[in-house]
Amino acid sequence: MFVSTSHTINTIGMHLLVQFAQGRFNSDSYATEEDLTTALLQSPTTELQQQIYDWFSTAKTNVDALIFGYVAKFSLSMDDIEQSLLPGLAADLMRYELCTNDADEGISKRRDNAIKQLEKIDKGVIQLKSSTPKLSSKTIKTIKPASQFNWSGY
């Protein structure tokens, strides 16, 4: 819902995804860019490609669940999601989920910043969509103000 495979590939980059995959899987099954492209953008044909697909799908499920936990109370359409900052936050969270080195400060910092942004969204500090004014169904009544002041004597 929040994670798009093509957006993730474009944001993280295929080269970095290949590095993540090579670090994730055994050295006897060397993942290539072709394997990742086939596994993520087409349908997997080999066992390694199926493992890559499952690895990416698990990360995608985790990130979607995390983001949904923060924005579940909002009614968002797909257009609202695509126009908001959620795809960027999802890409940063996917980078963390897919990396093999949890101690990488750059990736951890991106994840922490994304979590902080999600907390701000949850608190209402950051709006996901522009607010539209509500139309009033009541008429506005005006009356002559009642005044005790003596204008003529002034």
UniProtKB/TrEMBL annotation:
<protein>
    <recommendedName>
        <fullName>DUF1320 domain-containing protein</fullName>
    </recommendedName>
</protein>
<dbReference type="InterPro" id="IPR009752">
    <property type="entry name" value="Phage_Mu_GpJ"/>
</dbReference>
<dbReference type="Pfam" id="PF07030">
    <property type="entry name" value="Phage_Mu_Gp36"/>
</dbReference>
